[in-house]
Design a protein that fits this description.
6-stranded parallel β-sheet; Rossmann fold; 14 helices; alpha/beta; elongated; 2 domains
Length: 396
């Protein structure tokens, strides 16, 4: 069982908190502070209870060496603003002394973990150095939980460990959507290639009731059924994989839904002339770039009968209109069903978040994960090292 730090007595304790503060920068300033803001919202109540925070994070990819542009000094002011209190800063060498001087309600931000090569190699020695910084380890960075690094795996074995508010929020949402969904349950899986999501599809069809396949992945499924592809993105070498996925779905009683009609064009550019055709009628000189209106109507009926919706990947080339139509339409359906209280909706993945933002509905889903790789590996059914480490209880 994973303990939540919010349920623990933290007064007078120094919490070594692994955060993900790897935020975008422009002209030396934080250009999007969303991650910092969300992290701070969960930390402020702990500070109010009398805890001291030692905040750890990576920033960029300095590859084990000091890079001035990748210093966490650049986010210190933004973190201080979000936490509504002063934030101290320390290089690795001085961090232990600085941490020992923290009082209740005080915060120390430690320099970029990835300046030390021991972070990414999960070095025990570096982890022991980090363990000297406090009394309790708190992982609040689900987005890094798929990596067995010193600050996500080894450190959790050296101190009593707990999950932070964001970590618990993510785990609860994903378990609700995939491990114990209210049924009927539906997954929408899109994206360019079947080959990048084989494990995801194989896992989902064995756990959920319906899987809607979109994007270039749907093209490969349609090709496997004999549909002409013209110049469409598809993977001709994945026919056997498609057959395996379909067989797993049939055995598990999961229905796979593909587009019955598609939107095709001769060029992939904004405002390109497009036409809607049956899914098996793509011309030789055209490419499939979106699901058609009949497909959207079919998919909508599936969602309207659902109680849980899990979404990863767009249904078409959503970056350019008019090929965003299916993704936007279905996103709004899912959002409306969520608002009506009939479904729990969980979405994740970079393109998915971008698509939901473009549709203007990201804030209307039950939960939207920005975890990226960790979210995808969870969908694959993998054990995430950073999550498994929190289950270690012999230290308590």
């Amino acid at each position: 069982m994973i303990r939540a730090v919010c349920d623990m007595e933290v007064a007078g304790k120094r919490l070594v908190v692994r955060a993900d503060l790897n935020v975008p920068m422009a002209d030396g300033r934080v250009s999007d502070a969303t991650r910092i803001t969300r992290f701070a919202e969960g930390m402020r109540p702990l500070l109010a209870k009398g805890a001291a925070l030692v905040v750890l994070s990576h920033f960029g990819r300095p590859k084990g060496r000091v890079v001035a542009g990748a210093s966490l000094r650049h986010i210190r002011d933004a973190l201080s603003c979000a936490l509504q209190c002063p934030v101290r800063f320390a290089e690795h060498e001085a961090a232990a002394d600085e941490a020992r001087n923290l009082g209740p309600g005080q915060v120390l931000l430690v320099e970029n973990l990835r300046f030390d090569p021991g972070e990414e190699t999960n070095d025990e020695g570096f982890a022991r150095h980090l363990a000297e910084l406090g009394d309790l380890y708190v992982n609040d960075a689900f987005s890094c939980a798929h990596r067995a690094h010193a600050s996500t795996e080894a450190l959790a074995r050296l101190l009593p460990a707990a999950a932070g508010p964001l970590m618990m929020e993510e785990l609860t949402a994903l378990q609700t959507a995939l491990e114990a969904p209210t049924r009927p349950s539906v997954a929408i899986v899109g994206g360019a290639k079947v080959s990048t999501k084989i494990a995801v599809l194989k896992n989902l069809v064995q756990k959920l009731d319906h899987v809607i396949v979109g994007g270039g992945m749907a093209n490969t499924f349609l090709f496997a059924q004999g549909a002409p592809m013209g110049k469409s993105l598809h993977e001709a070498d994945q026919i056997r994989t498609v057959a395996e996925i379909i067989a797993l779905a049939e055995k598990a009683g999961c229905a796979i839904h593909l587009p019955v009609d598609v939107v095709v064009a001769r060029a992939f550019r904004a405002g390109a002339e497009a036409q809607t055709l049956p899914a098996n009628a793509c011309p030789e000189d055209a490419m499939i770039l979106d699901a058609g209106p009949d497909a959207v109507a079919d998919f909508t009926r599936v969602l309207e009968g659902a109680r849980t919706i899990l979404w990863n990947g767009p249904l078409g080339a959503f970056e350019i209109a008019p090929f965003d139509a299916a993704t936007v339409a279905l996103a709004r359906v899912a959002a409306e069903l969520t608002r009506g209280g009939t479904v729990v909706s969980v979405a994740g993945g970079g393109d998915t978040v971008a698509a939901l933002n473009a549709a203007g509905v990201a804030d209307r889903f039950t939960y939207v994960s920005s975890a990226g790789g960790a979210f995808l590996e969870w969908l694959e059914g993998r054990t995430l090292p950073g999550v498994a480490a929190l289950l270690q209880d012999e230290k308590v």
